[in-house]
C-alpha cells in the first residue's frame, strides 16, 4: 500500500506468506494492482501469489487494476493468465467495471484479450448497455465491433432475379479500383452523404438489421444523440462500424450498393454508381501537355 518495493522484496525473501488477507479480503497483489505498483506486482507473481484470489466483495487483482484504470498492471496480469471473466459479488467481470468507469484503453485491452461481452451483471446489464448508459461512445463502438468480428454478409437463399444479377445498376465497365483511387476519402464522403442527406429516418435501421446488428446494438447507438435529426448521426456511426467489420476480401462500396438495392433504395444505389463513374472519368482525363508556356 505504501509502495515500499524493497521492503516487499525482503519480506518475500524471508519466506512471508504471499496470500495473506486484510479485513476486506485483499491480498498484497490486490493492493499493488490497485495502486499501480508494477515492481511489486511482478515480484508477487514471481512468488506464486494467487492471481485470481477474490476479496470479500469478489474482486480479483484484475478487477482492482480496472477500477483504478491501471492499463500496464492489467496487461501484466492478463499476460500471466488472469481470469478475464471472473465475477465479483455483483456479477461484474472486469470489463463491466471498465465500461462503467468509461476507461476506453482498459476496455480495448480486455476486448483484445477475449473478454466475454455477453455476461450480464446482477441487474441484467451487459457491458454494452452499461457503456451506452454512460454515453461512452468509443467503448460502445469497440464492443459492437468486437461482437461483429465473425460477421459475414448473408448469402442469398433464393436465386437472383435477372435485375439483381446486375449489382452495379450502371456501366458494367466500371473499374472500382480505378474509380476509387483514394478509397478511404471517397468512402468517407459516400457514407457521410448517405447518412446525413440521403437516408430517411428509420432507413439506417433497415440496413442495420440487414447487416445483422442486434436490437441491443441499435439501441446502444441511438442512446448517445437525441432530437429530430439525431438519426443522421446514428446512421453514420452504424455505417462506420459496419465498414470496420467487413473482411479484407469484401469491397464496402459494392456491398453497400447491393444492400441499398436489397432495401429497395435503388435510387441511392444508382447515385453512388454515378459518382463512381464521374470519379473514373475525371481520373482518365489527363492533359497531353502540362508544360507552362510563358510569353
TrEMBL record:
Superkingdom of source: Eukaryota
| Keyword Cell wall biogenesis/degradation set for record | no
Which BP terms does GO give this entry? signal transduction
Alphabetically list the UniProt keywords. ANK repeat, Repeat
Is Repeat among this UniProt entry's keywords? yes
Q: Where are the ANK repeats?
A: 24-56, 57-89, 90-122
Domain Death as annotated: residue spans: 203-276
GO cellular component annotations of the record: cytoplasm
InterPro entries from the entry?
Ankyrin_rpt, Ankyrin_rpt-contain_sf, DEATH-like_dom_sf, Death_dom
What residue stretch is flagged as signal peptide? none
Please give one Pfam family short name: Ank_2
Question: Mind telling me what this protein is named?
Answer: Ankyrin repeat and death domain-containing protein 1A
Which species expresses this protein natively?
A: Sipha flava (yellow sugarcane aphid)
